[in-house]
Amino acid sequence: MISSLLIFSKIFPVILDMDGIEGNLRYALKSMVKEEDEKLEALWGFKANAILKLRIVHFEHRGECIGEAGNYTILVNPEFIDYRSTIRHELMHLYNFEWERRTGIRTPLWIIEGLAMMWENQMARNDLPSLETMFAMWRMDPIRMNEYPEELGEYYRIVHLFMIHLDEKINIFGRFKWLLRKVEECGDWETALSMILSESIEDFYVKFRLKQTLLFLLNPNILLYIMTFVFILAFFAKIIKLRRRKRKVIETEEESEDHHVI
Taking the model in full, what pTM does it have? Predict the structure, then answer.
């Protein structure tokens, strides 16, 4: 249930609905929005003339940014310990949407979420994917997806890993304004990234997926699991082989006895 409403604007001072908001939470949210907004303004190179409504929710909902044309609503659950990262993630969406509105250039879904995930987890780097993520990485192609898949959690993990991989190649946030200029010159993200990488973004993703698969398989823990699995298979194969051999010996003896009786 929505218990409070915070309205933040670039034009008007902060207007805060006091209903249901404790003083410390109100101060924390206001400080977070201001701090993260200043960082994103410096990153994107423009002031987002947008009205932002920050709605506090208490159901099982981590966060979401909705709205259009300079009027946005962010849902945030302060019961999550890392709700500052939710603010970072959703404010990145806001600036991305405002940039689209200014330039008329559509941002692919994987870039929208990849940028937000990397900005949200600024200290996280190239963690190895889980087994579930590896399977999902071979089942879905986030580069070609225009809608969110059912495996949403795995999708976020994949685009986050891929964006980190891309960042290692082109230093995304370190040269973000330059990257935006390239995108504006080319007219779309895929063309700009392919030009910068000197290969198509699809080919770059295929190489990333192969690299992640290799790193996953070479992980000591995974190697131990694989060796254990192979040992168990070999053990059962040996048992089956011995049982077949024993059965064959018994059948041979029975045939010999039958022949002797005849």
Answer: 0.74
